[in-house]
Each structure stands twice: as structure tokens, then as C-alpha cells.
Design brief:
A hairpin with a 2-residue loop joins strand 25 and strand 26. This protein has a 7-stranded antiparallel beta sheet, covered by helices on one side. The protein is mainly β. The protein contains 3 helices and 28 strands.
């Protein structure tokens, strides 16, 4: 008998169930779990757990189970410092964590008469992310794959930056790799290859590498590393970023389209996706901005009393307003897209952290770009969307509404 626990790359927004295998148990007297989660080195576990579940009552059968996923959600910090890098970098700290559970189970076995027994131990040490799996995947889903984003084309504007997350696997597991060979193949048949082997380690954040794939940051990366085989990305229709194995077979890849928009100013959103990584979606067509003012009011006294009696105040302000708060929302239109874009929109609407790129003044200088942009948090207001298909809709355009998460006027 032992604890049954999940392993692999685990998403804490879906159930993570720790269960006791009570096949040879008559009853359970105590079910205690000490839950540890930490960033940094895999082998440097904190002295104290972040949570303890200790049940001595309410154990209705010999198979007690606890869902620890909700307890772990608040341990993540999603930073934006590496959201537009033009070098090969590792993930930010606290966006991936190590997780381990110590257990203590006191139970009665099935001997005659039953005898008190004690089982203690530790679960497999795993990596956790702020991601989720689908209902049909069940609980304890290992969400690991080489590229931690939806296998769907991305359409990027010339000044859009993005860093693609590549998963190296758990330290010491069969999935682990400490070197990544990447091929960038352009639509015109040109290509470049690079092997990255010096960015890895046993820190949680080291297990995901971020590769620049937007036109500005990919161009800077190619220039800085003297990679001249690939045509300038701004001149390509698309480029594939491929992960190669030791015999140069493609194990995973994503395609990025270079999309021009001569009339409108495209708006890029970056969001935490199903794998707990930053993802991106650009809306190329018309956008409409709305403003909403929220305020409180009170009725001011009309006039004033004095020695000569009451003086009526013809200029009284009457009903006064205060605590003005200005919030803006924007309706975005995707432009014509593939029907599989619905998978990205699903993840965008499911995301609990979305950023809009603002104040962009990125410029191209010869073969490189000077990247200058800011980010501001938004909330997706659209909560219902009809998912379109080409068989029903000859042209597919999606429209969503987002609202800035903070007021436009500086208030706390």
C-alpha cells in the first residue's frame, strides 16, 4: 500500500489528487499531507511545508483523497521581464515550481483482529505550472510537450515580439534534455540552425527555455549570433521554428506568419496559456474604444445660516460628484483567421492574466530593431463566443472586448 500521486509537468488549475491506496485497509485513522512547493534548485527543498492537510475525522472510507491543486495556485508569480527578449533565456523564477508531498497515514489493516499500522513517505518530486488540462483528460494530467503552446499558426505583425517556451523536461527524468537544437526554416527555403546547451540547470525556471520568434527579437537574435542563412524575417511570408533530435528529425515545431496590415494599428495581447506560459494573439483589424466614468454623489447644502438669517445660495453646486474613476474598454477584431484560431481564443478567454502591448515605438535600424514598448493588464469582458467553421462561415473573424484592469486616472 502507498500513496498514489501525480508526476510529470502538472497544471495546478486542474485537480491534483493525492490518494491513499487502501486495498488492504479496514479503516483510516489519520491522513496527513505536508505540501512543499519552491522555486530554484530541485534539491534544496524548504524546511517547512507551505500547507498541511491533517484529517483525523470525516474519513468515510479507506481511500482518502485530497485535491492540492487549489492550494498551489497562489504560489506562482508571472513576471513580464522576459516577455520580449531578443536572446535565448530561461523562464522567470516563480513561474515554474518544484512540488513534493510528505505523507503520514495511520490505519487499521485487514488482519483479524485489525492491527494499527503507520505508513510514511514522500511523493515523486514534480514540476508544477499555473496551467490546466481538459475535462476528458481527467485528474493528474501530465501536460508535458516540447513546445508549451497550442500547435496552431501564429500571425504576427512586424513589430510584435514573442518568446516561444521550450520544455526541457524534469531533471533526471527520461524526458530530460540539456541541449536543444533548433532549426529556423523560412518560406523561401532558407534556414539557420543553432544548438543551445549552456542555459540549463536544476532550478525550476531552467527547465523552460524562451526562444525569440517575433520579427524584431528574432532579427536581433540572428544578427547578434551572426546567423546569416535565413532571409530577414520581415521579408518572409512565414518561418517554422523546429525542435530537432540527435539525428535531426523534427520532434515539434510551430509556424509564425508575417502579416502586414496597411490600414489599422494591430493590437497584440499576451496571456498565460493552458501550460502556464506566456502566449500571444494579435488582432489586426478595426478596434473601437469606449470610456466609462464611475462616480459617487451627494447633495450639498443650498445656502448658509448666519446672524441675519438664512442666505439662499443661488450658485450652490447642488448634487456634487466625487471619487471619479475612468475605465476604458476596447473592442478588438481579429481579421480573417483560420478556424483553429478558436483554440487560441479559448485559452485567451480562460486566461487569468492578460497583457496588452501599448506605447510601442519599436523601430527598424538596418538589419536590427530597437524594441520599445510597454504592457498593461486587461480583463477579457467577452464571456461567450460562437466558434466559427469554414463549412458554415466562408470568412472567419472574431470580435472580443477587453477592459483595462486599472482605471485610466491614477487612483488606488
Amino acid at each position: 500500500m502507498a500513496i498514489v500521486s501525480p508526476s510529470g509537468l502538472l497544471g495546478t488549475r486542474s485537480p491534483l489528487l493525492i490518494s491513499w491506496d487502501g486495498a488492504s485497509t479496514t479503516s483510516v485513522d489519520r491522513f496527513k499531507l505536508d505540501i512543499y512547493a519552491w522555486t530554484g534548485d530541485k534539491d534544496v527543498r524548504p524546511a517547512d511545508p507551505i500547507y498541511t492537510i491533517d484529517r483525523t475525522t470525516g474519513l468515510i472510507d479507506e481511500y482518502p483523497t485530497a485535491d492540492i491543486g487549489p492550494l498551489l495556485e497562489d504560489e506562482f508569480i508571472h513576471r513580464i521581464s522576459k516577455i520580449d527578449q531578443d536572446d535565448f533565456v530561461v523562464m522567470s523564477p516563480d513561474s515554474l515550481l518544484w512540488m513534493e508531498v510528505d505523507y503520514r497515514v495511520e490505519y487499521q489493516d485487514k488482519s483479524t483482529p485489525p492491527t494499527s499500522q503507520l505508513a510514511t513517505g514522500t511523493t515523486t518530486r514534480s514540476l508544477i505550472v499555473y496551467g490546466y488540462s481538459h475535462f476528458t483528460d481527467g485528474a493528474n494530467k501530465d501536460v508535458a510537450q516540447e513546445i508549451l503552446m497550442e500547435d496552431q499558426y501564429r500571425y504576427l505583425y512586424e513589430f510584435d515580439t514573442y518568446n516561444m517556451p521550450i520544455y526541457l523536461g524534469d531533471v533526471g527524468s527520461s524526458y530530460q534534455t540539456d541541449a536543444v537544437k533548433i532549426k529556423i526554416a523560412g518560406s523561401d527555403g532558407t534556414s539557420d540552425e543553432i544548438t543551445i546547451s549552456n542555459k540549463t540547470g536544476e532550478d525550476a525556471q531552467d527547465r523552460v527555455l524562451l526562444f525569440p520568434v517575433g520579427v524584431p527579437n528574432l532579427s536581433n537574435f540572428l544578427f547578434d549570433n551572426s546567423l546569416t542563412g535565413l532571409t530577414e524575417p520581415r521579408l518572409l511570408d512565414w518561418w517554422d521554428v523546429q525542435i530537432l533530435d540527435s539525428v535531426n528529425a523534427v520532434v515539434d515545431s510551430r509556424r509564425f506568419y508575417n502579416q502586414c496590415e496597411p490600414k489599422y494599428d494591430p493590437i497584440q495581447l499576451q496571456f498565460i496559456n493552458q501550460w502556464g506560459m506566456w502566449d500571444t494573439l494579435t488582432f489586426f483589424k478595426r478596434s473601437d474604444q469606449d470610456m466609462n466614468i464611475q462616480k459617487e454623489t451627494y447633495r450639498e447644502v443650498v445656502g448658509s445660516a448666519g446672524a441675519s438669517g438664512y442666505t439662499w445660495g443661488n450658485q450652490s453646486r447642488g448634487i456634487r460628484s466625487y471619487n471619479h474613476e475612468m475605465k476604458k474598454s476596447i473592442t478588438l477584431n481579429s481579421g480573417l483567421v483560420d478556424e483553429n484560431t478558436s483554440d487560441l481564443l479559448e485559452q485567451l478567454m480562460m486566461s487569468e492574466y492578460v497583457l496588452m502591448t501599448i506605447n510601442r515605438t519599436t523601430t527598424r535600424v538596418a538589419d536590427t530593431y530597437t524594441i520599445a514598448q510597454d504592457f498593461r493588464a486587461v480583463n477579457v469582458l467577452t464571456d461567450s463566443l460562437r466558434l466559427q467553421k469554414h463549412i458554415n462561415d466562408k470568412t472567419i473573424n472574431y470580435s472580443i472586448q477587453v477592459e483595462f484592469s486599472t482605471p485610466d486616472n491614477a487612483v488606488l
